[in-house]
Every structure is written in C-alpha cells, then in structure tokens.
Design goal:
alpha/beta; Rossmann fold; 2 domains; 7-stranded mixed sheet; about 30% helix
Length: about 290
C-alpha cells in the first residue's frame, strides 16, 4: 500500500503514512499560470494499492482529486482507495427547493468513477453514501477527539443539540467522561437559555463537540451560557473546522480552546483523524 497525498491534506497524509508504515508516493502538484491544475505521479505504481487522501473543499481541491485519481491509474496502480477527509457539498444532500442540484449526490458519483472503494470522515449526512457506486464507509474521528480531550482534563462533553448527541456519546466514551446535549429553553420573549438537559456543569471543564463548526454562532452562544452556569473552562472541538466568515477569532475569544482535526488544515488542527483511517485500511486489507 502507498499513500498519495493531495495538497489539501498533506499533514493528514503524512501522519497516515507514519501510522500505517507506508511510503508516500512522489507526486508533483502545481498550478499553471491560468490556475488550472497539474498533477504528475513521478514513479511507477504498478501493482500497488494506492490510497489517495484529499479533502474536496474548496472547489479547486475537488478537481485536484479527480486529477490525482487519473494520474494514479495511469501510473499502473492495481487499486485506488479514495479517502475524502472533508467531503465538500455534503450539506446539499437534497433539493431544498425545486430545481436545485443535489450537489452531494453528484460529487459522490464522480468520486466513485476513479475509485475502487472510498472512505469519508464524519460526513454531515450518511445518506450521501448511498450515491456512491463503489464500496464506501464513513469513519468517525470522535474517538480521537475524545482521547485528546481526556488528555487535556475535560470533565464533560456536550453536543450543541439533540441531533448531534451520538457524536458526543462516542467522544465521551473514548474520553471516559460524562456527556449530555444542549437544549434551548425560552425564558421570555427576548431571552433563550441554552443548557445541558441533565448535566450540572458547575466547576467543570466542558467541551462542546460537533462534526462541523462553520460560522460558530451556536457554539459561541453555548459557551457564554455554560460559563454563566458555572463552567470552569469551555472548549470547542470539531472534526471539520470550516470557520467561515472570520469566525475563528470570535470563537477563540468565547472559548478557552478551539480544537479541530486535520481533515481541514487549520491553526486549530491539534488532533489527527489518521487513526480512524489507518484502522479502516487495516481492517479492509486484512
């Protein structure tokens, strides 16, 4: 097996190669003056099981993935496993209004064309997997997040809403700590209280955990409320740190720590998703 790292996932690719004991392929990736992509595998991959690792956000990285798939095939790879750490367009998983493109379904179909199998990591909606035409599995980085939080003395983990509570449960199991989900309760016409359904956070270090943090508005409000309820420290942790609209400084002001994995390379990427990918590759090959 050989790891082929895309430019969007260099750190994750290197860590995956380290954890699996595999070599990194020699690949040239650059841009022409007109910004079109160029990809070249600079060695023969004849007989190799190639594992391409490339996030598909923003759009140029999606095109780069397609070029990587073609280059790997042209270099003689026996099989191609495509690992999409962050799956761009995953949230457009249905037509919300008439005439809309179902972007997630379309991306899954095209990624399948260059793959023998595929892996995603904490994809926003697992129903997207049904659009792949090759074997595909969604992996969870929540155990890795939980272990990291345990090492940093987190007492409790909460999800931002009931819909995400399964993720909090998985992370908390790995961390060996309590978990809960946040509920909104309207106090009056102008006041909404956000608090854990059952957990008393007084004096505790609490981590708000989710798959994606984008604008961060919900996390910031939740952090403020948890502090008002006596939380000693508040962390925010996610698999995919999008941090759109300049939200990261606001999140860092509201939380004691903001953490994400390396599915998207950010200053907050202190946790690696490589362990869940390495385990899945081991189980599949073994």
């Amino acid at each position: 097996m050989i790891v082929v790292g895309g430019s969007a996932s260099g750190a994750l690719s290197r860590e995956l190669a380290r954890q699996t004991g595999c070599r990194m392929a020699d690949v040239e990736i650059r841009r022409f003056p007109d910004e079109e992509g160029y990809v070249k595998v600079k060695e023969s991959l004849k007989g190799q099981d190639a594992v391409i690792v490339q996030a598909t956000y923003p759009d140029p990285n999606l095109v780069e993935l397609f070029l990587l798939q073609d280059a790997v095939r042209n270099s003689g790879a026996e099989s191609v496993t495509t690992v999409v750490p962050y799956f761009g367009y995953a949230r457009q998983d249905k037509s919300f209004t008439e005439g809309e493109a179902v972007s997630a379904r379309l991306m899954a179909k095209h990624i399948s064309l260059g793959s023998d199998r595929a892996f995603t990591v904490d994809i926003h909606n697992v129903s997207v997997l049904e659009a792949f035409s090759v074997p595909v599995k969604n992996l969870s980085a929540m155990p890795a997040i939980g272990r990291f939080l345990a090492e940093n003395s987190v007492d409790a983990i909460v999800s931002p809403d009931e819909g995400s509570k399964a993720r909090a449960s998985i992370a908390a199991q790995a961390a060996g700590c309590q978990w809960d989900f946040l509920q909104k309760k309207r106090i009056d016409g102008n006041t909404v209280e956000i608090k854990p359904k059952n957990l008393d956070v007084s004096g505790k270090t609490v981590a708000i955990v989710d798959d994606i943090i984008a604008t961060g508005g919900t996390v910031i409000k939740a952090a403020e409320q948890l502090r008002s309820q006596g939380a000693k420290k508040v962390f925010a942790a996610c698999t995919h740190g999008l941090f759109t609209g300049g939200s990261l400084p606001k999140l860092q002001a509201a939380c004691d720590r903001v953490l994400s994995t390396d599915t998207l390379e950010r200053p907050t990427s202190e946790i690696s998703a490589a362990s869940c990918i390495a385990e899945a590759l081991k189980n599949t090959s073994g």
